[in-house]
Structures are given as structure tokens and as C-alpha cells.
Amino acid sequence: MKKAVFALLTAATFAAGSVAMAPQAEARGGGAVAAGLLGGLAAGAIIGGAIASTPPAYAVPAPVYAAPPPAYMDGPPCQMVRERFWDGYGWRFRRVQVCD
Length: 100
Fold this sequence. Notes:
Blueprint (H helix, E strand, L loop, with lengths): L1 H20 L9 H22 L25 E9 L4 E9 L1
Antiparallel strand pairs: 1-2
């Protein structure tokens, strides 16, 4: 949106400057009309090139390569088991992992 406003302001500035400094138009040789047309085309090309050279705001970033996850390797089946043990004062329970 800022670029469009800037382009319109630039075009208005060129137009106001060319109108303010233009000499009295006479129909003798047609050189003034050609110069005005050429100046307008040049200003349009400059403004259009500036607008077209910037990337759009909705540009999608380039895809990023991500390595595949490692292959799943099934290890030995393990499970948590409640185990009773004697700690010197009495029987207690603890959970231990048992793999077959």
C-alpha cells in the first residue's frame, strides 16, 4: 500500500511540475506535445519499474529440506513392574523396568 501511495505522489509531483513549468502551448510545430508525451512515458516507465521490481508482500518463502526421521527400530519389549524388596527394616515396593 505504501508503494502505491508513493507512486501516486511521485506521478502527481511530475504532473504538477510539468504543468507549472510548461510554456504556452502553440500549434506551430507540435514539438511541445511530443516532449510532453515523451516525458510522461518516461515517468511512467520509471514508476512502473520501481513498483514491479519489488517482491509482493504475500511471497511464500522457499521450501526448506528436512531430513526424514530415523527408521523405527523395535527394541525389546519392556514394561514397568512393581517389585517388592526388603530394605532392612521392612518390605517396600518399587517400580523397575523389565525387558524380555
